[in-house]
Specification:
By secondary structure, this protein is α+β, with helices and mostly antiparallel strands. It has a domain of 62 residues: Arc Repressor Mutant, subunit A (Orthogonal Bundle). The chain is built from three helices and five strands; from the N terminus they run ββαβααββ. It has a three-stranded antiparallel sheet. A hairpin with a 2-residue loop joins strand 4 and strand 5.
C-alpha cells in the first residue's frame, strides 16, 4: 500500500441499514473539508516562503490545476516575482523537482501519487 494521504479530501461514512447477512451497508461521501496534500516523503520537510504560497495557490485551484500563465498571475497577486523575474520559475521548478507538483501539457497540478 502507498504511504501517506491518498486523496486531498475527507470522506464521511454513512450507514444505510444492514444486508441479508446482517453486515452494515455503508457508503463513503466526499466531505467538504480539503486536506493539504503532500508528496510522499515530504512530510518532514514543510514548505516555506514562496514555495508554500505557490503550493497553496495550486492546491486551492482544485483537481484541474492551473496553466503556467494562470499560476504565475496568481503568484504575482500574492507578491511573488515582484523584485526578481526568475522567482516564479525557480519556485515551480523546486516544487516539481521535489515531487510536490507535476505538469502535463502546460497544466500544473498537485501530485497525489507520492
Amino acid at each position: 500500500m502507498p504511504e501517506g494521504p491518498l486523496f486531498s479530501f475527507e470522506s464521511e461514512t454513512h450507514e444505510f441499514g444492514t444486508d441479508e447477512d446482517g453486515d452494515p451497508i455503508t457508503v463513503n461521501i466526499i466531505g467538504s473539508r480539503q486536506i493539504e496534500a503532500r508528496a510522499k516523503g515530504h512530510a518532514e520537510k514543510p514548505l516555506t516562503g514562496n514555495a508554500k504560497v505557490m503550493f497553496m495557490l495550486l492546491s486551492d485551484a482544485g483537481p484541474l490545476g492551473l496553466t503556467t500563465d494562470e499560476w504565475n498571475a496568481r503568484g504575482r497577486q500574492e507578491g511573488i516575482d515582484v523584485t526578481r523575474r526568475t522567482a516564479l520559475y525557480e519556485t515551480r521548478s523546486k516544487l516539481k523537482s521535489n515531487g510536490y507538483v507535476k505538469c502535463s501539457n502546460d497544466r500544473w497540478t498537485v501530485r497525489h501519487d507520492g
